[in-house]
């Protein structure tokens, strides 16, 4: 079976130390890969895969492991881990810069971003950030990365050509996860909140100027967002209410909401098929949402505490 068929989904399962591959047409998990070599290690080594990135050849999968302080490189063709590279403390997210052959890993407890060679997997630099870096995105032209520093309420901007920090931009929130608009003109910044605060906030900045364009107040604990091709609608996964909100960016109004499995976390929009995917860290599901009909189409069992989503 070709597990790497176009349209299949890869999910990182944080508490199970595994990666699920889901066939969305068949509606089932077709492959599970364990990072901890189950049965071969005692006591078992806990990895905590938090995020995933895939190279352009659909072969090497890069996985930051929050508990193991490593970046795993998995060869999906050979079906094995070919390297576990020590990075910083509590790595959370990874982005690939193919233009300059670099890998960037945000290290939450080290207040840094590790820069590695995409060719040799060699660790080259530790780039200082603000406090508690978490989410990270790369610009459409791959010339910059943006790092959300939750504790210091800043976003670090790094030039990928030289891997030099340009600036730490102050923002009006505690930035958690980041997402770029389809055209790359806008950066959506999700505020880190909690259910007792009873209010969710997302900021929209123009890039590269980092001028604040819009403040969106919706839900209780938004986690991740995705925008459509025209930047007309923003889809927001709210962990506290177990819903996906549909927010109209043109009218500045909440347009709809879709009930999903409990505690949605990861969120990805397939803009070609108009399908939205979200993971449920409480129900261990991958939800498949038809955004034209605005309904939850189906749910697929994956591993324990699924976090990030990658569309092949």
Features:
mainly beta, 55% strand, four-stranded antiparallel beta sheet, 312 residues, Methylamine Dehydrogenase, Chain H
Q: What's the topology here?
A:
Layout: E1 9-13, E2 18-23, E3 28-34, E4 53-54, E5 60-65, E6 70-75, E7 80-86, E8 91-97, E9 102-107, E10 112-117, E11 123-128, E12 133-138, E13 144-149, E14 154-159, E15 164-170, E16 175-180, E17 186-191, E18 201-206, E19 211-217, E20 222-227, E21 233-238, E22 243-248, E23 253-259, E24 264-270, E25 275-280, E26 285-290, E27 295-301, E28 306-311
Antiparallel strand pairs: 1-2, 1-28, 2-3, 4-5, 5-6, 6-7, 8-9, 9-10, 10-11, 12-13, 13-14, 14-15, 16-17, 17-18, 18-19, 20-21, 21-22, 22-23, 24-25, 25-26, 26-27
Q: Helix and strand string, N-terminal first? A: EEEEEEEEEEEEEEEEEEEEEEEEEEEE
* Helix share bin: under 10%
What is the level 1 CATH name? Answer: Mainly Beta
Q: What is the CATH T-level topology?
A: Methylamine Dehydrogenase, Chain H
The CATH architecture designation is 7 Propeller
What's the average pLDDT?
A: 93
Could you state the CATH homologous superfamily?
YVTN repeat-like/Quinoprotein amine dehydrogenase
Given the structure, what is the number of helices? 0
Number of domains: 1
Strand content: over 45%
Structural class: mainly beta
Inertia-based shape = globular
Low-confidence regions: none
Oligomeric nature of the chains: single chain
Biggest sheet: strand arrangement: 3-2-1-28
- Give the beta-strand count: 28
Biggest β-sheet description: 4 strands, antiparallel
N- and C-termini, Cα separation: 15 Å
* Rg result: 18 Å
